């Protein structure tokens, strides 16, 4: 077992899957020679050559469109959108083509493609490099949306996504790339898509989160423990389809639920999680379901003070957790 | 900041009140002393004034609900006082984050609001939520509280703090009259009516008790139980009074605008006699007898539904006209349901004009905690013997019930005799003013 970073886990997963399956190839902006702007694909160009690690033009629609075509041909493309903010030109390809291919062809065709996209803020990236885009894709049947939080889950879920027979939107939190480190086994393993994971056992409140804010919640839980409250923390890991069973189980455990995500609060994935709990286990609830998200203004103020105001942090999450625990 | 408004002490011996009508609703802004609700208590319908200026945030007592004196009726949010310091820059962003907090606190402040899981657990485990002290925000009962009880880690406990608070508030209320201070109250044991099995026959009508009827019942039982009643009666010749009244009543009506009845004359005589025999203007106080200096006369006034006993304050300082006016005003107030607690408290002796409905003899129940009650019976023409001759005279019986702990037959006999003499002496030289 080695301690590696979140970004290293991605690199390892890509390398191992490309070794394992000749049909896997990478395409995206600067993924080849440069090894990616975040160095995610570093060393892969040297190892697998220009035919399996393709530098593309700055045209996201083309990146995904080429991927869909290749997938239809039997390949397993891993398309990188350099920043999730840039995914918008490719939405038609992802939503109307990739996600619908199996359904529209009555099962004759499928699209085993992964679209990787670094998302989220806190890196002083400004409005074009800080957005959370998951909510837009979380009501598209035919598409899976995965957003791991730890190196272990990252590696296991990326492998699962690559091996999946249908398209997966794979979201990587860019602030987590080098911030988050963790144990990852040397041997080959996968983490199943569609399964949430309890990251901390607790009795008093349930916090449901993913990505960067999950780590903040874990830190806040340590502080809350000193106040005498224990927090039960669930990592969603897959955002679409949601792991309903795990969500309801976690909600029932304490009857007090706080959903935390970095995305804007209104219309965020937290609303769906809250609705699910309200529908299924109202009579186990001991407090109103609470959500904590970013204020409903555009993500990524460039001004440092404003960015700090916009982004969640362990203190803000602690306050919300403490309030719910006290209730 | 929210202040509590509690059920006020609306008169002597009042222990509970029924909220008959709310005059405000949640969200209304009220000024101090504005009436916020109508309360029916011990024979009184009264408006409860607001003790604060602010906004009604919560109404606890529902219309028709009977709650003890000092119990919470509603909550009023007081307008925030001006901060002496200019608000600092640091404090402003806080409100952005805590906007939800205040809402949540206010919305769930009431102890009686239970979460779905708490209600479910209470049903499953047959727990009485009213007897459990909550550890959540503002005393809310949390699911964890119930889990601990179910696991046997703590016991279902009566909310002591809550009850204690009510008692302290009741105790700290200013007492309306001095009798309550001087006399240790004895507990009234009311027979539990629900325990009595009553068989209803076809066509029987069941009349639910009103607050007033309940109070009358309790007061009567209390008086009959605690006070050893003794009774005396004397016959008066009121021919002189009858002649005098019929001579002046038309002029009086024209001049004063209301009818001159016999009652003010009787009250006048009774008050004068009480001055001679102050012992009848007294009350039993367990280890002592308290003789009252002020003569405040309770006058029984009946309506179709109930009996009220408003008080003529300092009756000894009033002329017959003054008494007539006071009686007229109190009777009017009683009929209109406008008696205030002030009108009802402080009586030291009661006069009841039972003759007004034709009674010639009655044995009244003493108006607790007073020592005696006097009735004036109907005036009837009777053949009587005067100087060995038979004459037809207007006669009237006067009856006195008295507390035999305080008074004996001799003094009461003397009292009645003196009273009789005064009543009989009314005639052409009587002055009204």
TrEMBL record, chain A:
InterPro entries assigned to the protein according to its UniProt record, in alphabetical order: THDP-binding (IPR029061), Transketo_C/PFOR_II (IPR009014), Transketolase-like_Pyr-bd (IPR005475), Transketolase_C (IPR033248)
Residue intervals of the Transketolase-like pyrimidine-binding domain: 4-179
Protein name according to UniProt: 2-oxoisovalerate dehydrogenase
Database matches in Pfam families: Transket_pyr, Transketolase_C
GO molecular function: oxidoreductase activity
Keywords: Oxidoreductase, Thiamine pyrophosphate
PANTHER family on file: PYRUVATE DEHYDROGENASE E1 COMPONENT BETA SUBUNIT, PYRUVATE DEHYDROGENASE E1 COMPONENT SUBUNIT BETA
Organism domain of life: Bacteria
Cofactor(s) listed in the protein's UniProt record: thiamine diphosphate
UniProtKB/TrEMBL annotation, chain B:
Transferase recorded as keyword: yes
Pfam families reported in the protein's UniProt record: 2-oxoacid_dh (PF00198), Biotin_lipoyl (PF00364), E3_binding (PF02817)
Enzyme class name: transferase
Gene Ontology MF term list: acetyltransferase activity; lipoic acid binding
Domain of life: Bacteria
Coiled coil: none
Domain Lipoyl-binding span(s) in chain numbering: 2-77
UniProt record similarity statement: Belongs to the 2-oxoacid dehydrogenase family.
The protein's name: Dihydrolipoamide acetyltransferase component of pyruvate dehydrogenase complex
Organism annotation: Mesobacillus campisalis
